[in-house]
Every structure is written in C-alpha cells, then in structure tokens.
Amino acid sequence: MPPWRRPQKTWAQREDKVDPVTWRFEDEGDEGALRDRTRAERYVSSGEEEISRVNLALLLRRPLLVRGVPGLGKSTLAYHIAWRLGLGRPFRWEIHSNATLQEGLYSYDAVGHFHEGREAPIEDHIRLGPLGTALAPTERPACVLIDELDKASYDLPNDLLHAFEEGAFRIPELKQRDAVVDAVDGRRVSVRHGEIRCHHHPVVVITSNDEREFSPAFLRRCVELRLQLPGPEQIRQIIDRWFGGPDGLEEVLTNLGGQPTDRLLQALFLTRIHETPLEEIARSVVEGKAE
Asked: What positions does the domain AAA+ ATPase occupy (predicted)?
C-alpha cells in the first residue's frame, strides 16, 4: 500500500468504528441484491489490459475511471470488483447535471429540522450519501460507484479530488459536537467534531460515456480504463456465462457483431422468449424497436 494511503491509526486505536458492510450480495427477499450478484458473477472481462488497470487502481488506491460508449458493462465492472473482493454491494451515486459534492457526501433536511423545533437534535436530520457512506471508517474498504460522471457540471470532478486525496470530509453543522448519523445503507456512523475520516480508502469506480473531457488534474489522479465493443472471444464467454454454452456463436457474430454488451444480451434473451429468427430480433434491437 502506498505510504500516503496508509491509515493514520491501527484499527484497534479507532474510537469511531462503524459496523462492516455486509460482504453478501443477496439478502433474503431482496431481489435487487440477487440481481446485482448475478450480474457481478457473470461479468466477462475484456482481457489482460482491463485486469492490469483494475489491479493498478487497487494497489495505488486511486479511482478507476472506466470510459466507453453506453452498454459495455462499465457499471457492472464495479459490481464485479466488489463481488470478487468480498466488499459487498457498491454504494451507487448516479450523477445528474446539477449534482454537487455535498449531495454525494451527506444531506441535511433543514426544513424538517425547523418543523421539529430548535431543541430537536440536528443529527437526526443528517443522512450520509453514497460517497460519504463509503468514507466511513470500517475495518475493510467499501466500494463506491460514481456513475456517468460526464453528466456533471464542470466543477464536480475537481471537487471530488479533495475527498479522494484526504479520505475525509467535514459536516459543518456538527463541527461543535460529537454525533451519530444514518448512513445510506441504514448503519449508524460516528461523527467526531464534524469530521468523518475513512480507515481504508474506498474502492472508487467512476464511469463515463465520453460525453465530455475531464481536466488534466483530475485524470492524473485516476487510473483510466477504456472498454471496447466485445470481440468474438468475449462474446463466446458472454453466451457461455449467461446461457450455458456458445451454441449458435457464428449466427450471433453475423447478426450482432459490433454491438454493445447490453444489446447483445437483450437480443439473446428475446430469442429464448419468442419464436423469432435471431436475424429479425437483432435488427429490432439494433434499431431500438425491441419490446
């Protein structure tokens, strides 16, 4: 581990420990968790370059910036990494054009606090966001997915740099007191004098559909990975993982070669539901008319 990423205290010395994130993807009755585990298990790597880039990001404790056209499995890669490392489901932050750093770190319901009255504890109205939860001090690192960062305003990527470098953030509303607040997953997190500081830097996966460029300063602090359209060998493995065998591989390559992974899977699932030739379904999927 790089010296600038080592915890300042041992785990035993921490007084603000947070319960660990469950390593399990599937909770009883939680269909979303089971679906996430399935997609994580069946993810097919694009090759050695991808594996090397992921390992480099993990070793350097740097964000992994995954770039490429929509539908290649960029978000699924985050779930696959978390599953392989036993880190539990990633905390997902879906970016929109007005997203701010504070939104990812925490939210404060000032209106709700006002209605309850001045005597109500302010911490009862503060909730950590996906990034803030991932920065909570746990014995093992958490994984956070910052999805489609290219949708953000110009400032947000650079605003993220401080949180990434410091592994900490402040909640000014709590700067004069110690408190316990809710995390996005329901756990309780201690806040000491308005600050939350991680024990291990989280595994950060950032996705981008390449709709904009990022600043050189931001790119220097990330490990970049560019995903390409799946080739024949990757398509064969995808069919094997999802459908148990590469039957009809040549027909798939003929009709769906050069398509993103999501369209490929959509067409293959439809051929198993409808008695329709793959060529016709592939045409509908490519044109965006499949139902």
From this structure: 60-233
